[in-house]
Design brief:
Four copies of one chain form a homotetramer. The first copy, chain A, is mainly alpha-helical. Chain A has two domains: 1-52, Arc Repressor Mutant, subunit A, CATH 1.10.10; 68-192, Orthogonal Bundle (Tetracycline Repressor, domain 2), CATH 1.10.357. Helices cover 81% and strands 0% of the residues of chain A. Chain A is built from nine helices and no strands. Chain A has helices at residues 3-28, 35-42, 46-52, 56-79, 85-98, 100-113, 116-141, 149-167, 174-192. In chain A, helix 5 (85-98) runs antiparallel to helix 7 (116-141) and helix 8 (149-167) packs antiparallel against helix 9. Chain A is elongated, with a radius of gyration of 20 Å. The model of chain A has no long low-confidence stretch (mean pLDDT 84). At the A-B interface, helix 6, helix 7, helix 8 and helix 9 of A face helix 6, helix 7, helix 8 and helix 9 of B. Chain A binds a DNA duplex through helix 1, helix 2 and helix 3.
Chain lengths: 194, 194, 194, 194
DNA sequence: CATGAATGAGGTTTCATTCAT
DNA sequence: AATGAATGAAACCTCATTCAT
């Protein structure tokens, strides 16, 4: 790759990063996310945005994907390993809590911009389906109880993600979070193991 | 109350009912929900809508509440009874499946019109908090396992509602639904009972 | 028709007339014809234009049709009569000169807004085809010379309309116009009569 | 001229030729003629276009002139000869049919890019005025009928060019074209000769 | 009260032109 | 000379809300 195209790519990346940051700020402040406003705050012209993204939709999608990337990566590493199903489940729970901040970011974004309908598709793709796979395997191994793996997956998802959602509305201290996590792991183990 | 004001109230009720119906039709058909369109389809003038609702937001909120009322009523009857906590839980699960149609209506509405953020608040008010109460009581009774009642409630919610959400993306026959329900009840019992 | 709807129609007509006038002014002054500018000059809001016309295209088409209406009417009266073909031809020539002002308006409009491609279609519909019919009949009568009626029609059109177009670039006095008209009639007769 | 400046001129010519070709392709395909698109298709940068043409208008004008050059040349050769007026007229008609493709190209271009107003000026310059000269001479010779030479010129122009325009909307075979041409010549002779 | 025409802020997108590299 | 990213003026269109009748 030439020096020039490297530089271009760098600038492109920088601008996109700036856009992502700006859109986040707008969303957090519950201000309308218009192309005018994004451009103004990024210190570029409106046309420039259209040099980097075809539509407004493409721009927002990029922002959205940016949020999802670290979550996807962590999930991929966990779900595609060949470890024991139970181990992978525990890793998933650990991961959710570890990356609570990413999740919080994700929720902040997704909760204000996407409709529930859109979230459901994403949820399926991001968590339910991998969980179903793990559960199916666990059931075949004979280590997990023999229940519809979808129900099992939903149960796990609800048990793990639900409290994370609710935490925003409760006032929980650090130590509580560890306690909750332990309760969750305990509960999940109790349920799925024969 | 005078005859005149009675009449007024009647008309008000009729128009509001018509509006609710119209908004639903629009949402189901994925058509834009504009004041113009609502008015045209209701056979009234746009200004008339503003005699019944201050804002568009107020109008949509009214529609939303209309959907929630039967759900709230059923939940109230269940959660405010003095029956055994476990019985009430089973009644809740029964209720969710019985009113699956209402829920489907609810989801159709909420999924296309409200953001995830709004759904979370509602979810808390509508299901989590009542479930927390029931669980707390069950724990004090000594019949439920001693886990953070929030986690327990979330687990139950996730196990019951999650599959309902996903069902839209799976292709499930009637008999399957009964099977799933049995799996869910079985699972919930297995979890919460000591 | 009710008094109210009569009034509405009146207002609609008045606004449309105002719009037509405004668009003409803009075209004559070679200024850009934007919806914003039309609205401003008509003393109405941009949205109002959209209450009367679906698109900008529809608006411009209306203006265009407004120009064509008197021309079409005169042509229709002439070409649909049962008079002698030669008489109808003379009437057509008379008409073109009588309504020179309409034509001038038409040209002013069409020349600045429509491409030649569009004009050709219109020309066909407005003049050539009626002329072809008249010529065909004259040929069958045995009064017109036996030449491809399209060529004949084009010749007549060119002979009559061409000078009108060119007059804008020459400086012709009133008397000259009468002289030119006589020359044209003379020429046309000389050509088409056996 | 230095070698360097020769080379420059060559490059300039090549690029301009490429631009002309590209613009034609775009116009024929009814695609928007934007500077971006021209540059991309020519394989040069947008800025380069501005090194060869001051404005977009200048660029388009150049393309337009390119189309006109061969037409002008042929016309010049015909109208500036000292042959008999009638012979020159016949040569003009021959020429129009010979270079039908150039004319068709011309119309394709002019019809989609220029307004009728612009076409009229061009028409005058390109055909009417030369024809007026020829006719004037023919009238003075005593071979042409004594009619306003402008009217005569318009008649000839209309009779010759009109059918060419209309041919696009009719479906005419090769032989028909010869027939039409004969009809036209015949008609023109019949009219202008005493 | 009902009406619905008028309003105009707010939004997205296009594209000729400039200018630093 | 060539480049092409950045620019930003214009243009079109939507729709919640107001208000005179």
């Amino acid at each position: 790759m030439t020096t020039v195209s490297k530089k271009k790519e760098l600038v492109d990346t920088l601008i996109k990063a700036e856009i992502v940051k700006t859109v986040f700020t707008l969303i957090k402040n519950d201000q309308p996310v218009t192309m005018d406003e994004i451009a103004k705050r990024c210190g570029v012209a409106k046309g420039t945005l259209y040099n980097h993204f075809e539509h407004k939709k493409a721009l927002l999608n990029y922002v959205h994907q940016t949020v999802l990337v670290p979550i996807r990566q962590k999930n991929k590493a966990i779900f595609e390993s060949t470890k024991d199903p139970l181990v992978r489940l525990h890793e998933f729970i650990d991961s959710v809590f570890d990356i609570m901040e990413d999740f919080s970011l994700y929720f902040h974004f997704v909760q204000r911009r996407k409709t529930v309908a859109e979230e459901i598709g994403e949820r399926l793709d991001l968590a339910i389906q991998p969980l179903v796979k793990v559960c199916t395997q666990g059931i075949q191994d004979g280590t997990f109880i023999d229940v519809d793996p979808y129900v099992l997956a939903e149960m796990i998802y609800g048990t793990v993600i639900g409290p994370v959602k609710s935490l925003q509305h409760r006032c929980a201290e650090k130590q509580d979070i560890q306690k909750i996590k332990q309760d969750i792991i305990c509960l999940v183990d109790r349920i799925i193991l024969k």
